[in-house]
Every structure is written in structure tokens, then in C-alpha cells.
Amino acid sequence: MPSLFLILTLAGLALSQDIITLPSQDNVTDYAPSLNVECPDFSTTSLIREFTPQNQSLHPSEVQYVEGRFNTTVQAAWNTWLGDGSALSYNLSAFQGHFPKVGLAIPGGGLRAAQFGAGCLSGLDARNDSAKAAGTGGLLQVASYMTGLSGGSWVTGSLFFNNWPTIKDLVYGDGQNLDGWKLDLPFVSPDGDDVFSEDNQYFYGSILWSVIAKADAGIDTSITDPWARAISYHFLNQTNRNNFFTNATAHGAGQLWSDIPNIPAFQQGITPFPLIVTDSRPAGSNLTTALSPLPIVYEISPFEFASFDPNLSAGMNLSYAGTHLTNGKADNGSACVKGFDQAGFMMGTSASLFNQIFDFAHNTLQGFSSSDSNTFIYILQRQLRSVRTRADDVANWPNPFHGLKPDTFEDSGSTWLELLDGASNGENIPYGPLFVKSRGLDVIVTIEGSADDPNNWPNGTGAIATASRLSTILLSSHQQFPPIPQTPADWVSTGVRQRATFFGCDPTQTPAEYPLVIYLPNSPPINGDNPVTNTGTFTLTYPLEHTQLFLDQVHFNTISGFTPNDNTPDPNFGLCLQCAAVDRARTKVTPVVARSSICSQCFQQYCYDPLHPPSQSELPNRKLVFVDPTPQGLTKVEGFLGANKFKLLGGLIGLVVFIALLIGGLIWWKKRRDREMQYNRVNNFHDDSDTTGLWPRQQRYSDYHAEAYELPNTQHVEPKFTEVKALDSPP
Ligand SMILES: *[C@@H]1O[C@H](CO)[C@@H](O)[C@H](O)[C@H]1NC(C)=O
Ligand SMILES: *[C@@H]1O[C@H](CO)[C@@H](O)[C@H](O)[C@H]1NC(C)=O
Ligand SMILES: *[C@@H]1O[C@H](CO)[C@@H](O)[C@H](O)[C@H]1NC(C)=O
Ligand SMILES: *[C@@H]1O[C@H](CO)[C@@H](O)[C@H](O)[C@H]1NC(C)=O
Ligand SMILES: *[C@@H]1O[C@H](CO)[C@@H](O)[C@H](O)[C@H]1NC(C)=O
Ligand SMILES: *[C@@H]1O[C@H](CO)[C@@H](O)[C@H](O)[C@H]1NC(C)=O
Ligand SMILES: *[C@@H]1O[C@H](CO)[C@@H](O)[C@H](O)[C@H]1NC(C)=O
Ligand SMILES: *[C@@H]1O[C@H](CO)[C@@H](O)[C@H](O)[C@H]1NC(C)=O
Ligand SMILES: *[C@@H]1O[C@H](CO)[C@@H](O)[C@H](O)[C@H]1NC(C)=O
Ligand SMILES: *[C@@H]1O[C@H](CO)[C@@H](O)[C@H](O)[C@H]1NC(C)=O
Ligand SMILES: *[C@@H]1O[C@H](CO)[C@@H](O)[C@H](O)[C@H]1NC(C)=O
Ligand SMILES: *[C@@H]1O[C@H](CO)[C@@H](O)[C@H](O)[C@H]1NC(C)=O
């Protein structure tokens, strides 16, 4: 890449001969987009699709994919799953191929949500023997859409960029091409607590190299970029335990979301159509709180970066994301951008929670003493405050919609969009795209791994937020939510958040006025075991045994349903799930087919009827408090800190250190640009003999703290690192 080379040379960094090798095809610097790409001819082609709130059209390629497989692959999958329908007392051929259109939604919540998503999908996957035997396996195969947000976007992206393997192969590796998620390697300090260890520094070095390559190309970066790169090491396919700390592969750099249509499984039509969700804060607002429901919510498909929010109602060709357009045109027809839609950056954008980390802290720091909490929040605050002025706490996207719809589109006047974690507006479940009316979904399956209550169980907060946004903001461009309990307290007391529940079973109109929502929440094991699945969002490391127990527990609950007042699986749950999935087919044919008696029985047990709400008391012996299944690593600090607290602490400290290092690196880099000719100054960072590396070696990062961070009172940072280390020794 000549431009990078030139800039590095200008910066006066010594490049030794052995570092200048031919660019390989597989390089962490492939994270840099290409600028100055020839644009399409704007007189005949548009990169923007505009539609009206009243008549929202889908991208033609999406329609082609979804409709193309609906009457072929999906129809066959229904027949495989339900057979001739006789087990449900239906005659399937009476439906004449009018099967419901199904979508799956996987919410946010970091690695907990990603693992919950994986475990639940394994219980719905026809390729999994026990799921198939239970009758639940098959729902995944009939799905037309799949949406993910934040941690949910990681499992979504991971499935696609590893060519749609089974969950077992995806998460644990298959001993061949797939290397697994490796969640036992800490997300932000993979070589362990010593962030200054050689391997950790190699890791940060590679990550920064990617990010700086992007910045050198001329696209503003932010803390979301290193985050995106760390995500790629686990969820994309080029990283294994042997190359983790090397530059031997690109570690996912260069893999583009817009390349999904080339992935073999997609080409064969065996995957649902993926969409991930990201929020925006009004550009220039500097908001650091949770968002109101008003700001635009975006979706990223393999074809488009778009919003079906009525006030925008437009989409942009994803291949050209990163291009500044005004009224749909680039200022310079030879200066378009490609390669901005890095798979890691798409997942990172959807998980860009940095601007409101304090709100997340509100959820997850409950185990802290107030002094611990204050200290760490103070450090985070200082770090983030220093970058916030540079809008470095959001995902920076050149605004392709600049100039469009000035009367309604809030960011019409802005040249950049400030994108955030898809849960920032309170909608932790990526429901929005699935309720878009033109997509016509009949059934929406919620793979609900949200952590709402103090024990990290869901309590309806996300669904309530979406129901309200649909009815107050999205209105007639979207379907409405079926009736649900009105408050989190009602979700708790009715027990619907602790068992499979179907919402919207009995619409009053034909066609139905809302989709049927199948709700599969993260909940305590039905058999009364201790739960291992309600971990904190900031738990960023999982020993392998924990991941295994986690997935097995979720899988078991997913295929089991519940038996009222008992702790045993419901042998009919598979049938009941089939009843729910296929129910809307009955009303698509004339005359309408009556609901069968076995399905009516199922609906009595699993449907939420607002007039006769169920009760939590039907769910006995559910243990709510997390029990760490792998406490070995903690024995030495027991008595010093509670187990859960330590885990949260470890995750949070990792995050703090990570952010500190990366922000340090970024700021240092910016300063380097400012002083590009001041070689001596830069060389001051090289306080040992390492003058040959592109970047100063490890120990230098601590110097950046002292010299280059521009943070007020940086001395508050250093003592805390020391204190962290102290936790490792016995009290
Ligand atoms: C990656 O690309 C950079 C810049 O083009 C080059 O200097 C470096 O040698 C490449 N690394 C590998 C491992 O190919
Ligand atoms: C348009 O971009 C190309 C490629 O970067 C550049 O060579 C050219 O000078 C630019 N034209 C204008 C008018 O800025
Ligand atoms: C909606 O858009 C479609 C496709 O662009 C067009 O065929 C149809 O006439 C439009 N309908 C209305 C009511 O505007
Ligand atoms: C799929 O089949 C249904 C029922 O036969 C039909 O109404 C619909 O038009 C078909 N869709 C496509 C895209 O072929
Ligand atoms: C199912 O319906 C089809 C078409 O309506 C009919 O031909 C067939 O005989 C029915 N099968 C049974 C078992 O009733
Ligand atoms: C099915 O899923 C369970 C739970 O994740 C797993 O233990 C089992 O190995 C899976 N079976 C297959 C065939 O993948
Ligand atoms: C990794 O993913 C990329 C992009 O999807 C693909 O081209 C490549 O073949 C994959 N590699 C392996 C080993 O699966
Ligand atoms: C990979 O490259 C980056 C940038 O030159 C460097 O900081 C890092 O140490 C390298 N990793 C290894 C293992 O050499
Ligand atoms: C946001 O921060 C920037 C940079 O500090 C400042 O110029 C701008 O006025 C701030 N905007 C608001 C609405 O406070
Ligand atoms: C994006 O634009 C290019 C150039 O016009 C075109 O070839 C491609 O099909 C477009 N992609 C999508 C998804 O619209
Ligand atoms: C949409 O635009 C209208 C007109 O500017 C405005 O009144 C309304 O508040 C906007 N809606 C949202 C959700 O921002
Ligand atoms: C539900 O979750 C919210 C956070 O999303 C929390 O503030 C509230 O206390 C919880 N309420 C109940 C009843 O669990």
C-alpha cells in the first residue's frame, strides 16, 4: 500500500529493510478502506435509494434472495420439519405452500448474549440431533431473516463469515478450518493480566496497526475501530491459538459485510437474510446518556446501509459506505470509498457502547462497593472525557444521506454520522427491521439474552421499548407489537420472562394486525440447577468449561419448554413450537383452517393472554442467582472479593486498560501527525534500542501515559494498574 508507506516515511520512522516486504494478500492493514475509487456514473446510477414512509420498498437484491428461497429452500425446510403435518393434526398440503415468513432476533449483551444466541440457535437447528429429536430443531431452517445487535451481531456475523457451520463447530472449532471463539483468551488482554507482556503488546500493536492504516488512508477512526479489531480475533475466521499474537494473517481485516453474498452458504440459499442494527446520536450533540427513542435507527444488510424510520426512509449501497455524498452524489466522481464495511467494524459499530458506558455500568457494576465503583468510573470518565471532544466515543461514518430530506432527517445537515450500540435507545432486541411492513413477517422469534434485572435476567425492558417506539414513532410503516405485559414488574410476576412464551396468538383481524412473537428468554434451568448463563455484559473472558456448560444449559432449556408446577421438560414442546411457527398459515388460505386441538392445547399453555395472565408461581424451584461453574481461578482472592464481583472487576479493568492503551495509541498517533517532522520528539519515545520497529515497543505505552496522553491527572491511572495486579496475590 504505497500511501501508507509514504506517510510512514514522512513521519520519519525508521523502516528497516526487512520490514519492507511485498504486501501479502493477507494483512492486518487490509482494514484500511480504499479511497479515490472511481464512483459509478451518477448520471445513470445512484448509490442511494429513497422511498417514502407510506411506501417503503426493499432493496431488489434482498427481495430476490428472500423471495427466491421462500418457495424453494424454505418450503422444503417446512416439509422436513413438520412432515405432512399430521402430528399437529394439520394437512400441510392444505396450506398450498402459504407458509409464514419467520425472522429471528438476537439481542445485545456482550459475550453473554453471543453465547446465549449460539446455545439457543443450536436448540432450533435441524442439524443438531437432540434439537431435531425434540422437534424444535428446524425452526432455524425455516427462517427468512435473522437480526443481531451488539453481542447478537457477533454471533450473526460469525455464522456468516465462517460459512454457516453448526454451533458446535463454530464455538469450539472443528479441528480443521474453524478455530472456535476462544473466549478463554481474555478479550482485551489475551495474554493475561499483564498488559505490558510481550504477547499483549504484540496484540495491541497489530490492532493499532490496522486502525492506523485506516486513519492514514484518511478516514476518521475512533475507539470503535480497535474494538472492532478485537471482536474480529474471536468471531471471524483467520485467528487461531498459534497465530493470535502474530501478524501472520489479517485476523479478519479485509473481510467485508458486502461480501456476504459471495459466501458459499449464502449462495446456496441455506441462510436467512442477515441484518444488524445500530443507533445514532444526533451529530454534534455529544450525548453521553442513553438515547431517547427519537434518533434514527439504522440497519446494515449485505446490500445496504439503510433506515426504515419514516423520517429517513432511505438506503445506501453498502459497498460504497464510507463515501461522503451530498444529495446522493460524491463531490468528486473519482473519489469514492470502498472497503469501509469491514465485517469487524460492522459488528463493532453495532456494539459501540462507549459513549454511554456509564449507563451500562448502572446495570453491571452493582456488585462493586461504592468506592471501587467510584474509582473505576472515575478512571473511565477521565479517559473517555479526553476523547469525547474528538467524537472518538462513537463509530464515525461519513454521512451518505447528507442533504437528503432536510425537513425530517435530523442529520441531513451533517457530513458525519455518529453511530452507536444498537441498544442505546433502550431497544436491546433488534426487532425494528423485522417489523418493517414491507418485509411482511408473520412470526418473530426472540432469542432473548438481555440482562435487565440485578441477576442479569431479562424482564421485558427491550420488548416494552420497541412496542412503544413502534406505536409512537414508526407508526404505519411498521407492524405493531402484539399485546405484552405493560411493565417489567408484570413480566416478572407473570413468569413470561422465565419460560418460552408466545405473544399475539389471537389477532382479531385477517390478515393479522401484528406478527406472532415467540419469546425464548435466558432463564434459570427448568430442572432447578444452578444457573451459569446469567453473566454480566462486561464479563469478557469465559473458561472453556464455562462456555460448554453455558451452551448446554441454554440448549436444554430451549428444547424443553416447561411443565407447569414441575421441573421436567415438556415432551410436547417441539410440537407446540411447530404449532406457533406455522399458525399464521391457517389464515393465508381460504377458507381459513381451524386451529387443531393439539395446537389449541399448546397455545393454552404457551400463549400470553392479557385477560388471563399466567403466574410466576407455576415455575417452581428456579434458582436466580448466578453460580460460577469454574471458580478455581478465584480461590486465591476469595475473601477479598466475591466471585461475581471479581469477574466483573476483571472484565472492567481489562476494558479500562484496553481503552487506556488504545486511546493512548490513537492520541499518540495523532500527535505524531501533528509533529510529523519533529523526528527527535518522536524518537524520545524510543527509550531503548528499538529504533527499527514501525512502532515503539511495548514499554513505550507507559511513556505515552506520561508524555502524550494529554489526560488530566494521569497519575490516577498508574496506581490503579498496580492495584489490579495486587488482586492476583493472596490477600
Ligand atoms: C502488510 O502491509 C504492509 C504495508 O503494505 C507491509 O509493510 C507489511 O510487510 C505487510 N505485512 C505482511 C505480513 O505481509
Ligand atoms: C478527484 O479525485 C481524484 C482522485 O483522488 C484526484 O486525482 C482529482 O484531482 C480530484 N479532482 C478534484 C477536482 O478535486
Ligand atoms: C410503491 O412503490 C412501488 C415500487 O416502487 C410502486 O410500484 C407502487 O406503485 C408504489 N405504491 C404507492 C401506493 O405509491
Ligand atoms: C410463493 O408461493 C406462494 C403460494 O403458492 C405464492 O403466492 C407466491 O407468489 C410465491 N412467491 C414467489 C416469490 O414465488
Ligand atoms: C391433504 O390435502 C390434500 C389437498 O387438499 C388432499 O389431496 C389430501 O388428500 C389431504 N390428505 C389427507 C390425509 O387428508
Ligand atoms: C447439539 O447441541 C448441544 C448443545 O450445544 C451439543 O452438546 C451437541 O453436541 C450438539 N449436537 C450436535 C450433533 O451438534
Ligand atoms: C475465511 O473467510 C473468508 C471470507 O468469508 C473466506 O474467503 C475464507 O475462505 C475463509 N477461510 C476459511 C479457512 O474458511
Ligand atoms: C505486528 O505488527 C505491529 C505493527 O508493526 C507490531 O506492533 C506488532 O508487535 C507486530 N506483532 C508481532 C508479533 O511482531
Ligand atoms: C460538542 O463538542 C464539540 C467539541 O468540544 C463542541 O464544539 C460542540 O459545541 C459541542 N456540542 C454541543 C451541543 O455541546
Ligand atoms: C452498488 O453499486 C455498484 C455500482 O453501481 C453496483 O454494481 C452494485 O450492484 C451495487 N450494489 C448494490 C447492493 O446495490
Ligand atoms: C420527524 O420529522 C418531523 C418533522 O421535522 C418532526 O416533527 C418529528 O419529530 C421527527 N420524528 C422523529 C422521530 O424524529
Ligand atoms: C427491569 O430491568 C430494568 C433495567 O432494564 C431495571 O432498571 C428494573 O429494576 C428491572 N425491574 C424489575 C422488576 O426487574
UniProtKB/TrEMBL annotation:
Substrates-to-products reaction catalysed: a 1-acyl-sn-glycero-3-phosphocholine + H2O = sn-glycerol 3-phosphocholine + a fatty acid + H(+)
Location of the PLA2c domain: 38-613
EC assignment: 3.1.1.5
GO biological process: glycerophospholipid catabolic process
Example of a GO MF term: phospholipase A2 activity
Coiled-coil region(s): none
Keywords annotated in UniProt: Glycoprotein, Hydrolase, Lipid degradation, Lipid metabolism, Membrane, Signal, Transmembrane, Transmembrane helix
Regions that span the bilayer: 648-669
Signal peptide residue numbers: 1-16
Pfam families, sorted: PLA2_B
GO cellular component, one term: cytosol
Family: Belongs to the lysophospholipase family.
Protein name (Swiss-Prot/TrEMBL): Lysophospholipase
